[in-house]
Amino acid sequence: MRASRVPPPAFDVVGDLNVRIEDVVDREDLFEMCRSAQALFGLGVRVYSSEGALLANEGRELSMCGLVNETAAGRAACGATVNRAKSVDPLSSAEVSDGYLARGRALGADHVVHACFTGLAYRIVPLVYETRHVGRIVLGPYAPADMKEAPALLVRTLPTLDRQEANARLLGLPRFEPSALAQIAQHLKTALEVIIFSSHKAYLTSKMHLYSVRESYRTLEEKNERLEEALARLKELDRLKSNFLGTVSHELRTPLTSIIGYSEMLADGIAGPLATEQAEFVDTIHRKGEQLLALIVGLLDLSKLESGTMSLRYAPMQIGPTLKEVVSTLAPGALKKGVEVELALDRTFCELAGDAERLRQVFVNLVDNAVKFTPKGGKVTVTATVRTIEPGALSEVRGTSDVDDIGIVLLAAPHLDQKAVEVTITDTGIGIPPADRAKVFDAFYQVDSSATREHGGTGLGLSIVRRIVEAHHGVVSVQANEPQGTIFVVTLPSAHARRVMPSRVPPAVRP
Ligand SMILES: Nc1ncnc2c1ncn2[C@@H]1O[C@H](COP(=O)(O)OP(=O)(O)OP(=O)(O)O)[C@@H](O)[C@H]1O
Ligand SMILES: [Mg+2]
Fold it and tell me: Which fold has domain 312-500?
């Protein structure tokens, strides 16, 4: 059972428009901007997120702040001021009057001035992007242009502080006019908003790219799942079909054997003499019965090969005697048709580990085809040569036959010379068009499948041939015989080559 997949989150357009500076802007860019502002204007700059997290900070301690920070009380008061400055909402028009703030945000103004108990001040500017508040810039502390001396609040907060020294330090600081501060703030605000805009654009683009890749991946995965399911269904159907063919063929064979047997007895006159016409009818019954039996035997063979229940008896053997027997069996019939069958054997000795009976069936099928599809006056030549094969050679041969479902790769070490027997069945017949060469190995496939076709047969021969050859770790392929005819090539690894092969057996065949 397949585990149900959790679908990936959809592209959240609205969520991704709710930009957070910390998500989209590179911190180093923010620091760079703060550093250049400090260098240009001599003004400390901090950038906070809308939730109050400090994102960038650049500033040097002012001499007045140094004086205040000398005492613990001064440090505490300074910390409290900074904390308040951090939490001021620059978009709120409410006056904040906790005694530390000199001014709130004037109605319509785009900033808040937050006063420090020392007389210094902070200017807090909201950052707005796509009508949303995304953070703030805090400028300062700075000495306002209208500051005259240390305020009474300083004396109340730090009564022991040297007031004279404080005044001297305060008055020694550069002053900032509100208009200059407004310009600096505007400049920084614009620069930061441009950075946010371009960073957000890049962020959205990369996110959309990511979503589209994820979406394609998901679609692909779904298609794969559907394909896998279809493949499993097809395999199951194929298995059912093989079982069905096997059962039906088996059940047909018994009554058919009786039909053939009784028609033979009738023909032999065991049940009394037959008139000429009766003898002809009985002969037809006998011939058709034999044809039907051949078909049923073929179907049974194929079904056993496909289901892996055919038992092959491998034994040391030579291909020569098998081929001689095949040729001597089929040559007389061929000669009657006007087709010559010739056998040319290589003398080199090569031992195979094979099932001689099944290999005989392979070559009977191939030579029978060659004779069947070669017109009168033609020639069929069967040759057997021993050749050295290289690692992977058998898989290459398979490639030429366009049969790519089960790969057999010979992985013998390159220095070991491996031998194989190559049997070719060459005819000068009608040939097989290139587009049909891979298909002829499929069960029931015939190049001419019309009702008026000249040659008999059911189209099972080559599919059985291929299964048996593969069970021997070999390959069968087909080529054109220029200018006319067909060449079938069967390559069977020697017994030694088979021993060093990885135990890669076609799944459907259990020898
Ligand atoms: N030597 C050949 N020359 C031309 N066509 C061939 C040759 N061998 C096979 N074919 C083509 O391949 C088809 C399939 O061959 P296959 O041996 O599987 O079936 P068949 O000969 O038609 O029937 P069966 O072998 O089951 O009696 C043939 O029908 C024919 O079209
Ligand atoms: Mg055939």
Answer: Heat Shock Protein 90 (3.30.565)
Q: Is the Cβ–Cβ distance between 306 and 242 less than 8 Å? A: yes
Positions of the chain with pLDDT under 70:
1-17, 90-109, 391-417, 499-511
Separation of CA 262 and ligand 2 centre (Å)? 28
**CA–CA dist 423, 430 (Å, integer):** 21
May I ask the CATH class of domain 14-211?
alpha beta
Contact 118, 65 (CB under 8 A): yes
Pure H helices in 268-384: 276-307, 319-337, 356-372
With beta carbons less than 8 A apart as the criterion, state whether 418 and 377 touch. no
Kindly indicate whether the domain formed by 214-303 is annotated with CATH number 1.10.287.
yes
Residue 191 and residue 417: Cα distance in Å, rounded? 75
User: How close is the Cα of 274 to the center of ligand 1, in Å?
Assistant: 37
Relative to the CA of 445, which ligand 1 atom is closest? 14
**CA–CA dist 474, 448 (Å, integer):** 28
For the chain, the structural domain boundaries read 14-211, 214-303, 312-500
What is the per-residue pLDDT for 303? Answer: 82
pLDDT tens track for 426-457? 999 999 999 999 899 998 899 987 777 778 78
Q: Report DSSP state, residue 451.
A: T
Contact predicate 497/392, CB 8 Å: no
DSSP codes of every residue in 89-147: -TT--PPP-SSS-S--PPTT-S-EEEE-TTS-EEEEEEEEETTEEEEEEEEEEEEETT-
Task: Indicate whether this model's pTM tops 0.70.
Answer: no
CA distance 382 to 2: 52
CA 370 to centroid of ligand 2, rounded, Å: 8
Protein residue with least CA distance to atom 29, ligand 1: 446
Q: State residue 176 phi and psi, 5-degree precision.
A: -120, 120
- Which DSSP letter does residue 313 get? -
Q: What is the pLDDT of residue 5?
A: 57
Alpha-carbon distances, residue 278 vs 150, 231, 257, 287 (angstroms): 139, 53, 20, 14
**367 C-alpha to center of ligand 2: Å?**
9
Whether residue 347 contacts residue 386, with contact meaning beta carbons closer than 8 Å, is answered with: no
Nearest Cα neighbor of 82 from 63, 59, 107, 105 is: 59
Q: How far apart are CA 424 and CA 366, in angstroms?
A: 10
The answer, yes or no, to whether any atom of ligand 1 lies below 6 A from the CB of 459, is: yes
State both tokens at 237.
């159907």
Residue 322 structure tokens: 């098998």
- 33 contacts 46 by C-beta, under 8 angstroms: no
CA distance 441 to 433: 14
